[in-house]
């Protein structure tokens, strides 16, 4: 985090002539509720029943009706055995396959061509998201890990971006997506799902920003300065009140007065995507 802080400090003194990326002056909006909250009375009973081989499929299920109406229907429904639960879920949700259809590059390609073939397979465009789903919409195309992971992830994306030298528009669009999430939610979540909003990942945003202008990082920092400062505030919130040996959220003051950042989840509950595993 010291390296990140140094680069944030560098950004503060970057040339003021560079145009900042558009930034809203409005405060971050209230985050949308994750499925385990929006569907509280039924989320746990479904998650703990063996109707899904992958708990993430339940977290990513798309409600066909407003969650409040589904909850009301659940309370009226008498069946709680696995067959009844499966029928209820099938009626009220669209479920992704536990094992999505596998798409692979063409066979026999040299390594670089194989990698180039992967990018369109792994690229998603979601300026809108299915209504009431856990997916967070993003304004620009982005690369996903693949398989069961159909959303963008924070620090994973930095290592993806290192391989996008020949696709600068896609790389810059992904950086802009993260800046968008900082403006909208106040930070970059673990991934672009409502159930990831309570936690983040190692703050690699400043390194992603540098990739947008590799020959002039200071220009890049100046262009994204509002978002860089906002993320730094998120990670350092509460630091000014800490005494040695105290901690708050994502920051810890050590015995010698130095500051360290740590992993933190604002929700002390089972994770939506791993609910059964966390409970058991």
Overview of the molecule:
This protein is mainly α. It has helices at residues 2-12, 35-38, 40-47, 55-59, 67-76, 82-92, 111-122, 154-161, 168-185, 205-211, 217-223, 225-236, 275-279; strands at 62-63, 93-94, 123-124, 142-143, 247-248, 251-253, 259-261. A three-stranded antiparallel β-sheet has the order 5-6-7, with no helix packed on it. Strand 6 (251-253) and strand 7 form a beta hairpin. The two termini are 34 Å apart.
Task: Give a brief description.
The chain has 280 residues and is mainly alpha-helical. The chain has 13 helices and seven strands.
Keywords:
280 residues, mainly alpha, 13 helices, 42% helix, disordered N terminus
Shape: globular
Q: SS-based structural class? A: mainly alpha
**How can the largest sheet be summarized?**
3 strands, antiparallel
Overall mean pLDDT: 89
Radius of gyration: 21 Å
Tell me the number of strands: 7
Strand order of the largest sheet: 5-6-7
What fraction of the residues are assigned to beta strands by DSSP?
Answer: 5-15%
Helix count from the secondary structure assignment: 13
First CA to last CA: what distance? 34 Å
**Helix content bin:** 40-55%
């Amino acid at each position: 985090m010291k390296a990140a802080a140094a680069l944030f400090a560098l950004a503060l003194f970057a040339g003021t002539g560079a145009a900042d990326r558009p930034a809203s002056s409005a405060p971050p909006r209230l985050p949308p509720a994750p499925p385990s909250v929006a569907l509280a009375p039924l989320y746990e009973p479904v998650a703990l029943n063996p109707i899904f081989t992958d708990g993430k499929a339940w977290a990513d299920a798309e409600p066909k009706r407003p969650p409040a109406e589904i909850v009301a229907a659940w309370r009226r429904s008498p069946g709680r055995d696995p067959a009844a639960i499966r029928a209820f879920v099938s009626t009220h949700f669209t479920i992704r396959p536990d094992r999505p259809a596998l798409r692979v590059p063409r066979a026999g390609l040299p390594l670089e061509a194989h990698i180039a073939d992967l990018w369109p397979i792994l690229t998603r465009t979601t300026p809108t998201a299915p209504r009431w789903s856990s997916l967070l919409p993003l304004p620009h195309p982005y690369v996903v890990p693949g398989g069961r992971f159909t959303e963008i992830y924070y620090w994973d994306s930095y290592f993806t971006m290192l391989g996008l030298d020949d696709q600068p528009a896609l790389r810059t669009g992904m950086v802009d997506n993260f800046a968008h999430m900082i403006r909208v939610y106040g930070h970059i979540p673990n991934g672009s799902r409502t159930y990831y909003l309570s936690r983040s990942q190692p703050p690699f945003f400043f390194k992603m920003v540098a990739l947008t202008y590799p020959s002039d990082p200071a220009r890049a920092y100046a262009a994204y300065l509002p978002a860089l400062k906002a993320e730094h505030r998120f990670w350092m919130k509460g630091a000014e009140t800490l005494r040695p040996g105290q901690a708050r959220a994502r920051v810890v003051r050590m015995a010698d007065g130095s500051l360290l950042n740590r992993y933190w989840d604002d929700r002390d509950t089972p994770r939506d995507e791993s609910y059964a595993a966390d409970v058991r």
